[in-house]
Design a protein that fits this description.
With 332 residues, the protein is an alpha+beta fold. The protein is built from 11 helices and 13 strands. The strands form 2 sheets. Strands 8-10-7-11-9-12-13 form a 7-stranded mixed sheet, sandwiched between helices. A 6-stranded mixed sheet has the order 1-2-3-6-4-5, with helices on one face. Helix 4 crosses helix 6.
Length: 332
């Protein structure tokens, strides 16, 4: 199998078909496009999600915390805390473990959440440190949102820029390579700074307040992967205009020299929302200093991308561009 998140067909056959439903208190169960579970606790629901961080050299602790909490925000819930699992190979130093834990703790402090517990282990089953976080949050039972709620005719709204997380990772871990390829040093610094923009908790809470129909945080597979997953969950289609998708200048520069597709680059930091009131949502987000753009519409069927007037169909969830790059640049 390819490196990266397992493809949708294998996920259905190898994983989801093997899982049974055993408890009526589980309101949102494992499903393509749904990254969190929702559990009934009467007036409130608990929202939980788990994510590992792989393919990263720097800042894996903060990435793990933000990515897991972003899933909670995509359900319109406020994160409360995380549990973390840290697996490190025997050659890892104590100083490296401390640095990773401090990174996790700083991210938790920045988000105003607690580290609730976890597990730390030295094992030769991994060749590099691996961090996985489980986040938990809560909201009122009538307020939670899912990817499955997207409706035909909804405006598709995105926040910030596509490929945000991937840009930060590449600008940090492959800085010298990119300098050698001619990317401007100031652009690379700006790309590295995007790591500070990974949280989508503010836009998630705004989306919940305005009662949007669906939300999905952009991760592996980039924006196009997120669009595919959301429309798979909701059993609808989409039509988007590629030229309307916002890209940071650093992303444009890096994508050009590495010949990667920025819309399929891992994109934590961007939230995908669908609503009948796209203009009102964009205005509210901008009033809260969150860049937002309407890029298209939810349709009854088909996954259509318009580029300079030409229509193309997205027939499968794309492999993430970061994983493609890493597969060919082990020693970069």
């Amino acid at each position: 199998m390819q490196a990266g998140k397992i493809d949708i067909n294998n996920l259905k056959e190898l994983v989801l078909k093997q899982i049974s439903a055993n408890n009526k208190d589980v309101l949102v169960r494992p499903k393509i496009g749904e990254d969190s579970t929702v559990i009934d606790f009467g007036e409130f629901v608990a929202v939980m999600s788990t994510d590992p961080i792989t393919g990263v050299q720097e800042g894996m602790g903060s990435l793990a915390v933000n990515v897991a909490c972003n899933d909670i925000a995509a359900n319109g819930a406020k994160p409360i805390g995380i549990q973390e699992v840290l697996l490190v190979p025997p050659e890892t130093t104590e100083e490296e473990v401390i640095a990773i834990i401090k990174d996790i703790n700083q991210a938790a402090q920045d988000l105003g959440i607690d580290i609730l517990g976890g597990h730390t282990e030295v094992t030769d089953i991994v060749s590099k440190p691996l961090v996985s976080c489980t986040a938990i949050g809560k909201t009122k039972k009538e307020s939670y949102i899912t990817s499955s709620g997207a409706k035909v005719g909804d405006d598709i709204v995105v926040t910030k820029w596509a490929g945000l997380e991937g840009t930060a990772i590449l600008a940090t871990d492959y800085c010298q390579k990119l300098l050698n390829l001619g990317v401007d040093a100031e652009l690379l610094q700006a790309g590295q700074a995007l790591i500070e923009d990974l949280s989508v908790i503010p836009e998630g809470l705004i989306g919940a307040e305005l009662k949007v129909n669906a939300m999905h945080d952009v991760t592996e597979g980039g924006l196009y992967g997120a669009l595919y997953e959301l429309t798979e969950a909701a059993e609808v289609g989409f039509e988007v205009e590629e030229e309307k998708i916002p890209l940071h200048p650093a992303t444009k520069a890096i994508a050009k020299v590495l010949e990667i597709i920025p819309y399929q680059l891992i994109g934590s930091g961007m939230m995908l929302l669908t609503t009948e009131q796209g203009k009102e949502l964009v205005e509210e987000l901008k009033q809260n200093n969150i860049e937002a753009t309407i890029i298209g519409k939810i349709t009854s069927e088909g996954r259509v991308i318009i580029n300079t007037g030409e229509k193309a169909r997205l027939t499968a969830a794309p492999q993430d561009e970061l994983w493609k790059f890493l597969a060919n640049n082990h020693d970069a």
